[in-house]
Write a structure and sequence with these properties.
28% of the residues lie in helices and 28% in strands. The chain is α+β, with helices and mostly antiparallel strands. A three-stranded antiparallel β-sheet has the order 1-2-3.
Length: 69
């Protein structure tokens, strides 16, 4: 099965904690705060290998020129 990408915020705090622990980030120690921060972010894309969260992008946009081309 290949990696799939999603624009929906359908991760759990446990998913986020495991992903952030895998790269040694201290924010993994605060999974609920991490989820709250990402849930309140405008743009979040996730990468999934089956049911496992394997990547995440959090983009800051100005709500004016976000996806204009």
């Amino acid at each position: 099965m290949g990696v799939t990408y999603k624009g929906a915020k359908n991760y759990t705090s446990k998913d986020l904690q495991e992903l952030f622990q895998s790269v040694g980030w201290l924010s993994a120690n605060y999974p609920e705060r991490l989820k709250k921060a990402l849930d309140n972010s405008e743009t979040v894309f996730t990468a999934w290998d089956g049911e496992k969260l394997v990547g995440l992008v959090n983009a800051i946009d100005d709500s004016e020129f976000g996806f204009c081309m």
